[in-house]
Specification:
- The structure holds 2 protein chains of 2 kinds.
- By secondary structure, chain A is α/β, with parallel strands linked by helices.
- Chain A has helices at residues 15-19, 36-41, 48-60, 72-84, 103-122, 128-135, 156-166, 194-206, 217-221, 241-253, 270-285, 300-307, 347-362, 391-402, 442-452, 456-461, 477-489, 494-514, 532-542, 555-568, and strands at 6-8, 25-27, 64-68, 89-93, 147-152, 171-173, 229-237, 258-263, 313-319, 323-330, 335-342, 369-375, 387-388, 408-412, 417-422, 428-433, 522-525, 546-547.
- In chain A, the strands form 4 sheets. A 5-stranded mixed sheet of chain A has the order 11-10-9-12-13.
- In chain A, strand 5 (147-152), helix 7 and strand 6 (171-173) form a beta-alpha-beta unit.
- The longest helix of chain A has 21 residues, at 494-514.
- Chain B is of the alpha/beta class.
- Chain B has one domain (3-420).
- Chain B has 19 helices and 8 strands.
- In chain B, the strands form 2 sheets. Chain B has a 4-stranded parallel sheet, sandwiched between helices. In chain B, strands 6-5-7-8 form a 4-stranded parallel sheet, sandwiched between helices.
- In chain B, helix 8 (150-163) links the parallel strand 3 (141-145) and strand 4 (167-170).
- The chains are: A alpha/beta, B alpha/beta.
- The interface between A and B is large, with 50 and 48 residues.
Chain lengths: 569, 421
């Protein structure tokens, strides 16, 4: 942060008025490493941007800061900063959100108040020509052609860079603080008196592509009729509910791919975000039923195998948080060997060990494998193989192979749960994942089993003779653990507690599944598919039978192996 | 499973098969509450029994007759509705009632299925879920305002668009001054015209004026009551304070609200002295948490002297213009504008009511309140009032650990008791 620049956070900030004073400015838009200082003065449940902004301001102590009264977080953050007495010039602008004829007039009054207060504080005089130079500066036109829009709430430069790296093509950042375009034609402006000029300027500021907070969804929807818009990456920040609700509407209406990225505006959750972005990119580039787009051409070795009429083998490796799975297929898609081992000692070591065991089972050597495709959280840390596909696309592929009539895949893994809607060819139509919370995942069950003194296998059947319908109301894993301990203390039957826990997981996962508009033909994959109690509870909650097979836990690795085969076929 | 829980389970089971029938059962629950409040008991002050009766009746009318009700946010002036004979349906009250009978998880699950964020205020999510489950039908109209938090601005537009409900929005400016009062008064005139348009019933100036005057008298009774709460205490469960919230907002302008506040004043004048620890409460009271009921109910260990969700817009007004009088209550509500006003007013009331400690309930998702947690603590303690920031969720008890709340609340009360010596 450069201290001689005015810091701001919102695109409705009248930067051109500040330019009239000869000011330079910077947008505060940085993901936080942590919130240690902000946390002391604020509250954990403030949205991530509020905490991040507060942290940045408290650490870097800007001299001049202009904020906009756009939400409760901004109002309270402003008050905390004011109380700390950090900035020499601190201004909170009241932005009208009621779309009436008076809105521009009201905003013009706020601009005038800013101008007067800045003049009094700085001793500088407002230069009308500098202001006109700034506001009459025609903005640069966007790059033409097809593009992917990043919409929703600000995402920070770091996330934008990551999206640009992972998603091919032209990317436009249309999030709340970006896409600022304020322009007035110079003709006639010089003759206006100050009041009329500022009001004309206020109108131009309000006519920008509106941020989600302005309540002008209709105007934002105009974007969707742009034929060049090919997909939307929609960013939300936990506790910023304005954008969460808009996402619901966009997701329901859009006829192009939309993916939601929820962050807490920190640099954490990279694994989950990367999976979502890459899965979205795979949807755009057509990876799915028809094989891997952009896959490299068959190597000389593969050609030789084929020419000789010999067998061909490929492997898929799924590096998950709990287990690492490997599947080896022959050219006829027959499973030659499969292995599931606990992930420990790093993704690469576990993958090497699992691959070694699988090759041994199949009676093969590493050089017998014509191709390897990796998937799962650890996919980028595995040295073997050169291609990787996200676990979303791999699970879809694997599920279609195992059950061609499947249309909805429910995958409960150790760290996350997913619902994937697929078409008749196994291509991904829609998907959702749980957020960082462990509720509804294998980890939740693991922690509850530990609290009850069970192994996971024992947990699977522990509810067989349940009698009392106990509801575990806490969704939070930590609270649920306390609830379980308390139920044990009340001498509740363990079978009843486990039955309640299974229903708690089922409820969370069923809610997730509903969000992809699921179709009949459910298949369950992932390690939790082996838990009979959860399966039963899920079937009761959804109201239909789930297809479960012996390969349920291998589905991701199987999908990866199928991709490996298609790539060289 | 207690009686309320059993009743809630019946409602949930019914809602799955027949939402309309579940709605009737909900209204039956209100009737049961009404009848129970008629049964004499020495544990509850007569005014609170009356409060329970009128609140239950009002809620029942709104649930049974959606065609004669208007869905409102709690900060909308309801005097025009009282003048027009329209029952306001407070979404917060509906959600509170649903949670009180433990039916809230079914409605919350509906919102999860719809993909709503779990960070949104649970009071709003519960009524969204009830609408999604078709237990709560779309009302004839919806009136809302940006006062006092973002949840209103997110939640109401969502249901308005989803269910195509005719609506009216009042924007309250951030600054508190006469210009803002006039700006809001103009909008209130438009709102009255809107209500007439939708209902076809003309609201006469005389009826409106009478309703606003009743509201003024209601405020005066409440403000007068605050002079006695330092020494005397009314008897009742912790949720009794919510009748005052209801009468000061949703029922403002009705005869019943005026009677309730007159009764509370009369009862407290006659009430015995009470030595329980005196607390001033900011924001919602999480009356569903056993920890709160045990510590604050029936004024044994501790009791609440005043709640800022009641006194937020109670003023002794002599404004003749009814629209400006209603607008004044919105603009000068402690929930409007910067936090200084809310803090100053709390300190003023804490002094007046001989309060020993202040509790700020940091309701899940309510950034407007908890965003200034550090400021409250600093300013209140500077003014000599120990302060507890109590995290929790007023509408979704499963979202907080009651054991932890009990420890915090209990320790705070013990600390204040200790400070007496």
């Amino acid at each position: 942060m450069e201290k001689n620049k005015v810091q701001y956070v919102c695109k409705y900030t009248p930067l051109e008025i500040l330019a009239g004073f000869g000011c330079e400015f910077d947008l505060i838009d940085k993901l936080a490493d942590d919130y240690d200082i902000a946390g002391q003065l604020s509250h954990d449940n403030l949205c991530g941007f509020g905490k991040s902004m507060l942290q940045t301001v408290l650490q870097e102590k800007p001299e001049e800061l202009v904020l906009v009264n756009c939400c409760d977080t901004m109002r309270r953050t402003y008050e905390v900063i004011r109380e700390e007495g950090i900035c020499k010039f601190l201004f909170l602008m009241d932005l009208p959100h009621r779309q009436s004829c008076c809105a521009a007039e009201k905003l013009a009054k706020e601009f005038k108040r800013l101008k007067d207060e800045y003049e009094a504080y700085s001793g500088k005089r407002f230069d009308k020509n500098k202001f006109l130079d700034a506001v009459c500066n025609d903005p640069k036109p966007e790059k033409e052609g097809a593009y992917i829009g990043i919409l929703g709430v600000r995402c920070g430069q770091e996330l934008e860079d990551e999206i640009r790296e992972l998603v091919p093509g032209n990317i436009r950042n249309l999030t709340c603080a970006r896409n600022r375009k304020v322009y007035l034609s110079r003709r006639g402006l010089e003759n206006l008196d100050e009041y009329a000029l500022v009001e004309a300027y206020a109108r131009a500021v309000l006519e920008q592509f509106p941020c989600g907070r302005m309540g002008l969804l209709e105007k934002r929807r105009e974007l969707f009729s742009d034929p060049n818009l090919k997909g939307i990456i929609y960013h939300t920040i936990k506790f910023c509910d304005y954008y969460e609700m808009e996402y619901l509407k966009i997701k329901a209406e859009a006829d192009f791919p939309v993916v939601k990225l929820e962050t807490d505006y920190t640099k954490q959750s990279e694994g989950q975000l990367k999976t979502r972005i890459e899965a979205f990119a795979e949807t755009l580039t057509g990876v799915g039923a028809d094989g891997m787009a952009g896959a490299s051409a068959p190597t000389e070795k593969i050609k030789a195998h084929k020419a000789a009429g010999g067998h061909m083998f490929v492997a898929g490796i799924d590096s998950g948080s709990t287990s690492t799975d490997v599947v080896i297929l022959d050219e006829n898609k027959k499973i030659e060997a499969s292995v599931i081992i606990p992930t420990g000692g790093g993704a690469n070591i576990s993958a090497e060990e699992a691959l070694h065991q699988a090759l041994e089972k199949a009676g093969l050597k590493a050089e017998d494998l014509s191709n390897i495709v990796k998937t799962g959280y650890g996919r980028d840390y595995i040295e073997a193989g050169s291609n990787s596909v996200t676990e979303i696309t791999c699970h879809a592929k694997g599920a279609h192979f195992l059950c061609p009539s499947a249309r909805t895949v429910i995958d409960i893994g150790g760290q996350d749960s997913k619902a994937i809607k697929i078409d008749e060819n196994g291509a991904v139509l829609n998907f959702v994942m749980n957020d960082k919370c462990a509720a509804g995942t294998g980890r939740f069950l693991e922690m509850m089993a530990r609290a009850l003194g069970f192994t996971l296998d024992e947990m699977s059947t522990a509810d067989e003779n349940w009698k009392e319908d106990i509801r575990i109301s806490s969704m939070c894993t930590v609270f649920a653990e306390s609830e379980v301990v308390s139920l044990v203390a009340q001498n509740k039957d363990v079978a009843d507690i486990v039955h309640g826990l299974n229903h708690s997981v089922a409820s969370k996962v069923a809610s997730l599944a509903k969000r992809v508009s699921p179709e009949e033909g459910y298949i369950m994959t992932g390690g939790v598919a082996n838990n009979q109690g959860v399966v039963k509870a899920l079937e009761e909650t959804i109201g239909t039978k789930l297809f479960i097979c012996d390969e349920a836990q291998l589905c991701g690795a199987l999908g990866a192996a199928l991709f490996a085969l298609e790539q060289i076929a | 499973m207690d009686q309320a829980e059993k009743f809630g389970q019946i409602i949930v089971d019914t809602a799955r098969k027949n939402p309309k029938k579940a709605r009737k059962l909900l209204s039956m629950g209100c009737t049961i509450n009404e009848l129970m409040s008629l049964m004499p008991t020495s544990k509850v002050s007569p005014c609170h029994r009356y409060g329970s009766r009128i609140v239950s009746h009002s809620l029942k009318q709104a649930i049974i007759h959606p065609d004669k009700s208007a869905m409102v946010s709690i900060f909308i002036p309801c005097e025009p509705l009282a003048a027009a004979g329209i029952t306001p349906l407070s979404v917060e009250a509906f959600s509170g009632f649903s949670s009180g009978i433990h039916a809230e998880q079914y409605f919350l699950n509906k919102t999860k299925e719809d993909g709503e964020p779990e960070t949104l205020c649970s009071f709003h999510r519960v009524f969204h879920g009830a609408m999604s489950a078709e237990v709560l039908p779309p009302p004839k109209m919806l009136l809302y305002t940006n006062l006092a938090c973002d949840a209103n601005m997110i939640s109401f537009p969502y249901v308005i668009e989803k269910y195509k409900i005719p609506s009216f929005f009042i924007e309250v400016p951030y600054e508190r001054n006469h210009e803002a009062v006039r700006y809001v008064a103009e909008q209130l005139k438009e709102m009255v015209a809107f209500i007439s348009d939708i209902t076809g019933a003309k609201i006469s100036e005389d009826e409106l004026r009478e309703s606003v005057e009743r509201g003024k008298r209601t405020s005066r009774y409440y403000l007068e009551r605050l002079k006695y709460v330092g020494e005397h205490a009314l008897k009742g469960p912790v949720e009794s304070e919510l009748y005052a919230v209801y009468s000061g907002h949703i029922m403002m302008g009705t005869k019943e609200a005026e009677i309730y506040n007159r009764k509370t004043l009369n009862d407290i004048k006659k009430a015995a002295n009470n030595d329980a620890v005196r607390l001033l409460w900011l924001h919602m009271i999480p009356f569903l948490q056993p920890s709160i009921c045990q510590n604050l109910g029936y004024s044994t260990k501790a009791r609440i002297t005043a709640v800022d969700l009641v006194y937020d817009s109670m003023f002794d007004l002599d404004l003749a213009d009814p629209y400006e009088a209603m607008a004044y209550r919105m603009v000068y509500s402690v929930y409007n504008g910067n936090i200084d006003w809310r803090i100053e007013r709390a300190i003023e009331l804490a002094k007046q009511t001989n309060t020993e400690g202040i509790v700020v309930f940091a309701h899940w998702g309510c950034k407007s309140t908890f965003g200034a947690s550090g400021l409250y603590t600093k300013r209140f303690e500077e003014a000599g009032f120990p302060t507890l920031i109590l995290n929790g969720d007023g509408g979704d008890p499963s979202n907080c650990a009651d054991g932890q709340m009990a420890t915090r609340m209990g320790a705070f009360i013990e600390m204040l008791e200790e400070q007496r010596h």
